[in-house]
User: What shape does this take?
Amino acid sequence: MNKSIGLIFAVFVALSVGYAFSARKGPPLPATEISLNNALLLDAQRAGARLVAVGERGYIFASDDEGSSWQLVASGVSATLTGVAFADERLGIAVGHDATILRSEDGGRSWQQVFSAPDQLRPLLDVAFIDAARVVAVGAYGAYFESFDGGRTWAERQIVDGDRHYNAVARLADGTLMIAGEAGTLLRSADQGGNWETLPPAYAGSYFGILPLVRGGVLVYGMRGTLLRSDDRGDSWQTVPGGGAGSLFGGGQTVDGGIVLVGQNGLVLGSRDGAASFVRLPVAGSRLWTAAAALPVAGEAMIFGEGAFERVKLASGEKQ
Amino acid sequence: MKTNSVVTAIGQILFGWRRSFLALFVLISLALTWSATQLRVDAGFQKMIPLKHEYMQTFTEYQKTFGGANRVLLALRIDEGDIYTPAFFATLKAVTDEVFFLPGVERASVTSLFTPNVRFIEVVEDGFAGGNVIPADFAGTPEDLEEVRANVLKSGRVGRLVSNDFKGALVSAELLEVDPSTGARLDYAAVAGKLEEIRSRHQKDGVTVHIIGFAKAVGDITEGARAVLIFFVVAFAITAVLLYLYSGSAKLTAVALVCAMIPVVWLLGLLPLLGFGIDPMSILVPFLIFSIGVSHAVQMTNAWQLEVVGGADGLTAAHKSFLKLFMPGAMALLANALGFMVILYIEIDMVRELAITASLGVALMIVTNKMLLTILLSWMDLSPAERLRSAGRKHSGDWLWVWLKRAAAPKPALAILVAAAVLLAIGTWQSRDLRTGDLGKGIPELHDDSRYNKDTAAIVDSFSIGVDVLSVIAQSRNVNGACTDFTIMDTLDRFESTMRNVHGVQGVLSLPGMAKTVNAGWNEGNPRWRVLSRDPSILAQSVTPIDTGSGLLDTDCNAMQIMIFTRDHQGTTIAHVVEEVKKFIAANPSENLELKLASGNVGVMVATNEAVDAAEVTMLLLLFGSIGLLCLIEFRSWRATLCIILPLAIVAVLCNALMAILGIGLKVSTLPVIALGVGVGVDYGIYLYERMAHELHKGVSLPAAFLEALRQRGTAIGFTAATMAIGVGTWAFSALKFQADMGILLAFMFVVNMAGAILLLPALAAFLIKRPAHPAGKAAGH
Assistant: This one.
């Protein structure tokens, strides 16, 4: 009896020691997932109720809850995506480096590659729908691709002489198409992309974006905060006050026609007066911002950039 | 018995020739004292890392190529407002100039807003425009300051030279370890001193100076290691007082102290002869040896005192004590040495030197304490008054022993076992929270709240600068210039992108990432061009502006370094990051590209943690195996062995639990603690059990045998535990965190092992030990 108590104790000690010194592992750490917070995003658009953002290494993120949560969507490519556009809440096109063109029929939830030409060394930089069937994609060295079947097949065309980079393409409210690019390049088409004319340069530097304004007119923006506005389809341009602090790389409009422009060194500009003037919005940090998309709340937009997205609010009280 | 006849023979020779032996010992001591003066302090970085580990071979292989980023950073921080004031810029300029003239500074590398290598570049309509961030005609006027404010933003140095909140600015400089003109090695302590001078000159008027960098760390660690000498003096003084109070005799105190110091001197004298130096870790060994020396001296003087009080003269008493204590003493020391030797299993040079040094010290003690001390005692005698006092002392503590002897009676014994089991269960549960690696912030050698680590935290918080970095080396094969090979660069870019998303990673710096930014720069700064070109000539254009000084590529661009900055260096975090790197490597096999782990301070930590983890269980098995075997040989009884080993095992678990509770990680410095603690702790059990076994052989009951053992050795054991705990406990105040950790844990081990020996050992014996069949049969003759 006595002895067995001693032995039981010895066994208990042996087991405890064995367990105490067996391999220790802490709680498992979260698995590795590509997160929007670590990616450079380059463009973002709405597809109905969904926000879709594209960026480096072919990453596409989608949010169905206005940015509260984001899901990485399989794009099937690893080329950096630079532009995205939606014809409606279902049909969308994304473009990028390696002349990659992706197509989605379900509002950006899944994508199929429909074109790619890595050997040409020509990135595509923007895309715009003319209507549900006709789509235009533009890019470096005068790249101009068009599709007449809703983005299923694509053909390339030289639209004007020269090989300037085309940084942006947009369709104005009246149906005019406009391309903005390197060294003051501005092109215009009055016949849905059939013929293109070169507009006389209004600025020597490069434009990075075109914003057809909801309330009429068009805004182009670019290097060193250049901000030009035209109310006559590009025949004449006026400089808008409030730019100049740094290059602007992207922009968007709120549901009520407010304008948000974003760029380098944390630059965020806002206008509630239809682009008559801009004020700098206080957004913390000196991040690089590249894109903006509307939120379903008046005066609010979501801006995107290097490993970040942020809700911004245009100051109220200004004249509508 | 054979062993006893050997001991008797040794005793006869020793005491027959005691004068010659004494002369010999004095000569040896003199020679080794002289040799000890040659001892050099040797804090080689190489000794701290497991060089045989696969990662560390990569580390060593590429060390020359990518260099140690041997940089010092001085951050000036203003308490109120922002940096754009004339006074702040005057201070920044003064500090920049002073850093320029620091010894060992590579002057071209000095970087601050004031140095010409800091420029801003902006893209303008017809190309680039740029200039110095602080213009040459800067005079500190409000207009000048506004211009600088704008230039700082354009320079893209926010987060690197100017803090993210614009309340601080940085001066950084690279140090050259070897002076190119003289070939002399840089004296880091001197640089650290100069840096401290800069701090004291400029830290005023609302400006705080933070300084970090390898040189400063080495300076602070060296200073911390020096302070250990003070602890030695304190430990010595406390021990001396306790010894005097205990023995009541100044003579005995002096003899015990001298005999405890002699092995320390011998050891320090032998180290240079063996080619060893002393480093911040092994500097602790002299304490340990001194403490163990005192404990054995106490056993010996105690035994001698008992003999003298019993009526013997000095020589006879010494001889008798020698015969009584040589075997258990030598056994205990052998157990100590075994405990220290198993540490050899850890493949880190610094730990191995600790093991060798400590084992050697203990081995020396068999000569100094068992032989030299008894010889010295043989010439001594106690005055009648001292005898009386000693005799009184002998009985003064008796009530305690009488009370404690109940531990060997069945009922209290059962209670003790139950209490021990409960304690063990709690300890086991707690010990599961123990983590491998350093758990603090900043450099692990220093306390979290040390000046250096506070400075680190201040700089990390306000600048975009990481201090915990894991480097992965990308080695290309059969490729001419991997930097312009799209496939390789793209793979590395994907690697960077993947690692950026790993939990615990703060940021990643790699050549592809930098090249992408350069490419965007060539394209009007447009972020949509932040890509790697498939065209080798364009890719070359993106890579060329990146200097090899960035540490991201070697000169012919066959090897690149990917720097992964981790959020902290907790063992679990960095092990996870390494695991994810391995996953990427496994998923991306390539003939032309090999990703190799690992360099950077986190690389070293991961390798060290892996080595520590790998060594732990084997070390413990060896430890308990060898000590168990020793006990088995000595006592010829597995029951006796269990009585001695089980308490030690429980205390080992409790030590782990204590580490978990105190937030001390299992690392190079704390892994040996259990071995040291068990090696020393086994003494108590051996001394006690040896006496008990003798009594049991005489046929007395277990409680009676235990009481007799306590009477003869209990005082010495209690006293020993106290002096040893105090000796190592003083380290708790060390400026070096690992010394403090070791001190606290060892003190705990010593005290709790003592408690285990006087409470648990008899309780276990009550259940495990059979009464001898033949009372007083073959009592061991002595």
Observations:
- Chain A is about 5% helix and 40% strand.
- The first helix of chain A runs from residue 2 to 20.
- Residues 159-319 of chain A form a domain with the Methylamine Dehydrogenase; Chain H fold (CATH 2.130.10.10).
- The helical segments of chain A are 2-20.
